């Protein structure tokens, strides 16, 4: 077996069961215990955060919340590492075109080095693999590139035709999450054959009636209900960053609101954190589409 073949196998795309189980465990860990990103601003200072009184675009505000989303960070990470380096390690391999979009076409038996020299190119574009495609399906970014790196302070190009989910519920098994992706009046649900079927049907019926009432009352509630108040968004970001950094709500309140009553401040931070997590997890849709 050639060396590049061994490397390719070692960088399996995650479709085998053990890799999928590892991905699920990694995601659960990322959500429960998010790592402190190196790019995270000092939450104790206002520098490094957008100024709500300045000319800050909706895209910039939305991006600040999206890039703090643990699931976004996870999907970007697994997409980035997927079959990205082996062709550079073995530049004489003739198999690189299997994983990249090559225009002009690669000649039969042509290696990466030969192709790049012939076409006078600096790089070729990676193919969209299932793991790269997943972040495009879940989040409204246009393409998989360095521009969607959470460390990038500038917002990427957003897909205005993205099919935003109305319901975004992640189950214990990350691959088993259900939502409405295509139309505002459709809901997709999963059932377990290991559990009592009638009980599930009863619960599903109640849930569907509830969603139907919400739909009649206000269409997509996530998108259309109310307007975004941009004034507190900087503080919301600081709340999130303080929590990720290990600060308590009391500590966050003392730093962000030093001149106000401590008890009321703690209540303000507690409520603000819930709102901040909402914007981080799905409320960014309201910011983008307002």
Give the structure's gist in a few sentences.
This protein is mainly α and 290 residues long.
Describe the 3D structure.
By secondary structure, the chain is mainly α. The chain folds into two domains: 185 residues, no CATH class; 44 residues, no CATH class. Strands 1-2 form a two-stranded antiparallel sheet. Helix 4 packs antiparallel against helix 7. It is globular. The N terminus is likely disordered.
Number of strands: 2
How much of the sequence is in beta strands? under 5%
The strand line-up of the biggest sheet is 1-2
Low-confidence stretches: 1-19, 166-182, 221-225
- Count of alpha and pi helical runs: 12
Instruction: Quickly count the domains.
Output: 2
Give the overall shape. Answer: globular
Q: What sequence of helices (H) and strands (E) makes up the elements? A: HHHHHEHEHHHHHH
Structural class: mainly alpha
Q: Biggest sheet: strands, sense, closure?
A: 2 strands, antiparallel
